[in-house]
């Protein structure tokens, strides 16, 4: 089961999703920082920092139809990686368990438990495998980076 943010448009229309998401998030931008992901189509507003709970992931549909898994750590740093587990093909990384190893934040796939570095997308258990890691920035609110 993939958790989608309530501010996203229906999955059937990815081109419309970015516009609807931006409009919905703009209404709350005065109180919370927005989280943006840089994908091939440019910077896309995905959610607010208030939508992210440290240690828990959420899935977001990007304009090209792919999914990203977003996470925030306890320090308020946001991360985004591809949601697709390369070992199984399932869109489940947003449902994984988070942790850290040697100072590197990771998410462990809920299926086979491989760990993926949230900053780089590298698999910590198989150096030949990686997922896409998206640049993330927050705008507005108390943090703007």
Protein architecture, described:
The protein has one helix and ten strands. It is mainly beta and 145 residues long. The chain has a four-stranded antiparallel β-sheet with strand order 3-4-5-9, with no helix packed on it. The chain has a three-stranded antiparallel β-sheet with strand order 2-1-10. Strands 6-7-8 form a three-stranded antiparallel β-sheet, with no helix packed on it. It is globular, with a radius of gyration of 14 Å. It starts with 13 loop residues before the first helix and ends in a 6-residue tail after the last strand. Residues 1-17 have low confidence and may be disordered.
Mean of the pLDDT scores?
A: 83
Biggest sheet statistics: 4 strands, antiparallel
* Rg computed from alpha carbons, rounded to a whole number of angstroms: 14 Å
The gross shape turns out to be globular
Give the topology string: H per helix, E per strand. HEEEEEEEEEE
Which structural class is indicated by helix and strand composition? mainly beta
Low-confidence stretches: 1-17
- Largest beta sheet: strand ordering: 3-4-5-9
Strand content: 25-35%
Total DSSP helices: 1
| Cα end-to-end separation | 31 Å
Q: Helical amount among residues, as a percent range?
A: under 10%
Number of strands: 10
């Amino acid at each position: 089961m993939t958790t989608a943010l309530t501010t996203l448009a229906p999955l059937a229309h990815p081109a419309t999703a970015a516009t609807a998401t931006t409009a919905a998030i703009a209404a709350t931008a005065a109180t919370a920082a927005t989280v943006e992901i840089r994908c091939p189509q440019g910077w896309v507003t995905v959610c607010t920092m208030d939508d992210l709970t440290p240690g828990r992931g959420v899935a977001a549909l990007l304009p090209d139809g792919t999914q990203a898994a977003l996470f925030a750590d306890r320090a308020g740093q946001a991360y985004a990686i591809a949601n697709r587990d390369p070992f199984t093909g399932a869109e489940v990384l947003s449902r994984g368990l988070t942790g850290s190893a040697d100072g590197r934040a990771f998410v462990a796939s809920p299926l086979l438990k491989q760990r993926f570095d949230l900053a780089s997308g590298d698999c910590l258990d198989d150096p030949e495998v990686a997922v896409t890691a998206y640049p993330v920035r927050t705008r507005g609110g108390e943090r703007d980076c």
